[in-house]
Structures are given as C-alpha cells and as structure tokens.
Amino acid sequence: MAAVQSTGTLRQPSRPACTSSLKAGWSALWALVFLTLAPRAMAVDDQVWFALSANGPMQEDSRLLLWFDAHARYRDGATDLGVTIIRPGIGWQVTDTTKAWAGYARVVGRRNNGPNVEEDRAWEQLTYSVVDLFGGSVTGRTRLEQRYIDGADDTGHRLRQSLRWTRPIGASDWSWVAANEIFINLNNTDYGADTGYGQNRVYAGLGWKPVPGLGFEFTYLNNHIDNPLGDNAKNNNFTVSMSLRW
Asked: Rounded to the nearest 5 degrees, what angle is found at the Cα of 127, between the Cα atoms of 104 and 206?
C-alpha cells in the first residue's frame, strides 16, 4: 500500500518499510484464510470409527519397539463399513521423550458402486513430548507417508502433523482428551491428490484407564476433507478406541 501524504505544510511521518511489509504479509495471510474458509458445496456424513492400538518395547528395558494399530470406519449413518486399516511397525526409543517409527499399512476403501480402493503405504514418524499446558500435557506426532494405490501410476507423498492434549480429571481413572491432525499432500498425483491441504481432523472427548496399560477413549471427531475432484466432505464421527501399552 502506498503511503498517504497530507496536503499543506504539515506532513505525516513516513512509515518504516518493515511496517509496510508486515502489513502486506498479514493482508496476504488473511486473504489465504478467507479463500480456504470460503463456503463451498459439501457432503456431510455421520460415521462411527473403531480403533485398536498397541505398542511397547520388544523386551523389557529394550530400546527396540513394536507398533500395531487397526481401524474399522462405518459410514452412511454408521450403517456401512467404509474403510479398514491394518498398520504394523517397529520403532526405536531415541530419548526418554522421543521415539522414531517406521512401518507398513494396508488400507481398503469400500465403494457402493465400483471396485474397492486398495492402498499400500510405507510410513515413518516421530512421537514426542511438547509441553505441559493447562494442567495437562501436549504430545506430538509427525508422520510421512508414501501411498501406493492400486491402478495408479504415481506415488503420493503426504505429511501428517498431530498435536494431542490430555489432562487427568482429579484422582480418577478418567481424563480429558483433545487433538488436531492436519494432512498435507506433498505432490500432485494421477489418483486425484493435489499439492497442499488435504484434510483436517479435530476431536475431543474422554479417556478412561481402568488398569495400567489399558486405555479407552470416547470422542467426537470432526473430519474436513478437501476434494479437488468434487464436493468437499465433512464427517461427524463418534470414535471408540482401545489402546494397550506395556
């Protein structure tokens, strides 16, 4: 924006170049936010997701770790099985608060009309502690995925960044849980992925640990999906998960 000067003998002091640059940067940021949040046609579905996860050291006091998670996701008002995922992996205890992982995932997306979408994924991730906040703790997970979809020639590369907050409820076995995960496509592909924002998942709810090493979570998850080939999607999901830690 060009500086506006007063008429007559009085002149307003010129603004530093850095201030003008800062304002221009904020203007560009707000324009990007507006374009991202601008209303678009959207498909809405109510779903129920189930998850099972397990991880821990291969042997007592070992730094070599084992990982496994599995998912079943029901769509169309929770009446039809839509997606299944099986994801094994191995890891390494880098520090007391950081772990490095790598593994494989088999993902099957079922279609009402047409063949299933079958996908193989290689994945690598770091899990780590971030900060103590509001009486709870924040942890992070940074995951890279290489996606190989049957019938497609391109390999999709994707970044997933998750932040998760948990806080015990008094001295009980229950806790508050909240998290957000954003998905960023790192390349264009022939199966429809465009570079940039892909989807976001934000959820909140309750966690319950009846005994050491066993946990359950019951949450509401809002899943926004950007679809460059059609309408965006928003899924209202009730999630139930069980975790085993040793």
From this structure: 100
Whether 177 maps to a domain, the answer reads yes
CA distances from 84 to 78, 106, 198 (A): 14, 8, 20
Please tell me the pTM assigned to this model: 0.82
**In this predicted model, what pLDDT tens digit does every residue of 47-90 receive, in sequence order?**
999 999 999 999 999 999 999 999 999 999 999 999 999 999 99
CA distances from 89 to 39, 61, 95, 123, 135 (A): 39, 19, 19, 9, 32
**Counted domains in the chain:** 1
Q: With 60 as the cut, is the pLDDT of residue 8 above it?
A: no
- Interatomic CA distance for residues 100 and 112, integer angstroms: 38
Beta bridge partner(s), residue 179: 164, 203
The amino acid present at 196, given as its one-letter code, is G
Strands 155-168 and 117-133: unpaired
Q: Is residue 9 part of a domain?
A: no
Residues of the domain holding 193: 17-245
Domain of 165: which CATH number? 2.40.160.40
Are 180 and 162 in contact by the 8 Å Cβ rule? The answer is yes
